[in-house]
Design brief:
The protein is of the alpha+beta class. Helix content is about 35%, strand content about 10%. It contains four helices and four strands, in the order E-E-H-H-H-E-E-H. A two-stranded antiparallel sheet has the order 1-2. A hairpin with a 4-residue loop joins strand 1 and strand 2 (about 15).
């Protein structure tokens, strides 16, 4: 786990380790709460890069770390498709 407070956990949204720790210190306890408060995991990659780091940080306690099931969902990027491409599709 990175030690530098300025280390970017979520590169897409530019969320640092310090911001995640501040969210935890303010009482947020789940990865979903941290995601909603900081936008970590909501960028272009939809958490594919930072998801595991966020969940590791959430699982860390002063006594060590505990194994928590994943609370974050993966949303695949979607691109709009012109209706004409669907209508003119040949089988």
């Amino acid at each position: 786990m990175p030690k530098d407070e300025n280390y970017l956990i979520c590169r897409c949204e530019e969320i640092s380790l310090k911001e995640i720790k501040n969210a935890k210190n303010n009482g947020l306890t789940t990865s979903q709460e941290i995601k909603m408060a900081t936008r970590a995991g909501m960028g272009v990659c939809q958490g594919r890069i930072c998801r595991s780091l966020i969940e590791q940080l959430v699982a860390e306690t002063e006594e060590g770390s505990c194994k928590l099931p994943s609370k974050l969902t993966v949303h695949h990027p979607v691109r709009p498709v012109p209706l004409g491409m669907i209508v003119n599709k040949e089988d």
